[in-house]
Fold this sequence. Notes:
Mean pLDDT: 82
Radius of gyration: 14 Å
Distance between the termini: 22 Å
Amino acid sequence: xxxxxxESAERAYRIGPSERPSEAVLAAVRAATGRDVGSAPTGDEGxxxxxRAVDPDALDALFEPTAEGVQRDGRVTFSYAGCxxxxxxxxxxEVRPHHVNEVGGD
Length: 106
């Protein structure tokens, strides 16, 4: 994890051995924002469904080993729930709330 600014800051989350990347994204964003998925119908109090930001099945497929069993290399970055989320082939999900990137913001 990186340094803390305000109530939320950049966080790094290690994907578990039996956890899909899409599940890890939800866990990491919940930890960074303190919000849960689907706690409000409008998404105002909870997290919007992940599929509105990225296709969860496609995200999971990107990090599956190849047919030969070789681990893929790369990363995907997207915006979700007011955060910049990066999923890396090294098994880490990084979450940076957008307000942490702002200089002089409230």
